Structure formats: C-alpha cells, structure tokens
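Thread amino acids onto this structure.
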C-alpha cells in the first residue's frame, strides 16, 4: 500500500505589496488653530506625502495654541511651519505648502 499525500490547496495566496523603499520621513507641521491657511497646509502636506512618500512617513500636526511649549522648543516664529526631522538635514518650510515643487525640494524629493 502506498502512502497518500494530503490534497494540495488550490487557493491562491495573496501577495502583499512590496515594502516601501527609500528613507523614512519624520515630519511635524505647526499650525495656529483651524484657520483656512492651517487647513490648506494640512491638506497639502497629506496629499504630497501620500503621493510621494506613501508608507514611509510620519506626520504630526501640532496646534501651537494647544501645545505652545513644543512650538517654543522648535523656535516657531511663523505658522504654518513644516519641519523635516528625518532624514537629515533638518529643514523648515513656512507657508501653506501650496507650492508643491518648493515643498518637494525642501523635503529633498525630486519633483516628478
């Protein structure tokens, strides 16, 4: 009597997407409440990050009215201000981040 093998599964395995490549970005966006300019900056940086840094960024939005000590520690003098902590070098971009090319250059990302 020959040994029998268990039947093979015919279900296909889902392949997961490849892991993100490139450096991980750590960003902090300092805003002043829910002003239209602050909301534009939040929306703009989220769009840029999802389009160009998907899966390899962390974005922390900090309201200077709610956390003034953080703003003081970072020496924030104007808002909105985006600070790139990682990868080095540290960079600051001031404004509502609507100039996409300027933001990409400031983040050391080549414009498409």
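Threaded sequence (112 positions):
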């Amino acid at each position: 009597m020959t040994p029998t093998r268990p039947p093979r599964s015919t279900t296909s395995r889902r392949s997961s997407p490849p892991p993100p490549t490139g450096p991980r970005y750590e960003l902090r966006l300092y805003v002043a409440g829910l002003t239209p300019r602050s909301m534009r900056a939040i929306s703009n940086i989220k769009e840029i990050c999802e389009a160009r840094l998907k899966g390899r960024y962390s974005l922390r939005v900090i309201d200077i009215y709610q956390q003034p000590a953080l703003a003081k520690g970072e020496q924030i003098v104007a808002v909105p201000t985006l600070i790139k902590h990682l990868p080095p070098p540290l960079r600051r971009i001031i404004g509502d981040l609507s100039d996409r090319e300027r933001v990409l250059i400031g983040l050391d990302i080549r414009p498409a």
